[in-house]
User: Fold this.
Amino acid sequence: MSFRIGIGFDVHRFVEGRPLYLGGVEIPHERGLLGHSDADVLLHAVIDAALGAAGVGDIGELFPDSDPRYKGVRSTLLFDEAMRRLRDAGWRVVNCDAVIVCEEPKILPHRAAIRASLAGLLGVPEDAVMVKGKTSEKLGFTGRGEGVAAQAAVLLERR
Ligand code: MG
Assistant:
């Protein structure tokens, strides 16, 4: 058996007038995240963890901000493309664990939906995906409610 592990991290800033997407799920909230795509900070961290484990680049390299094709695009489309590259490189996902850091919104009420969404995107059972919401105890940019950070780990095995 051959296994690989990867980690991912991402941050996006809160702004007025945009929807909030986390893990491919639209979360009801008064603000959304700013970005070239839909700014789904959790999907971006998971994509980077998966690409990193497979050794096939990173999100900024595959889907550059400067490319108008990715302006306003749903990150689920970027995710599907990243999964295709990972499969082409001979890997499949075993499991994913992730942390969302923000004071608001609370993640727990949305966790089941986010896990189901991520499991579908990754092609794994829901119990192979975990997502935790954490505050940063009012410290730093996440503590001041200026944005959301996400971290993820993805384990791959050879197909
Ligand atoms: Mg990002």
About this structure: The mean pLDDT is 97.
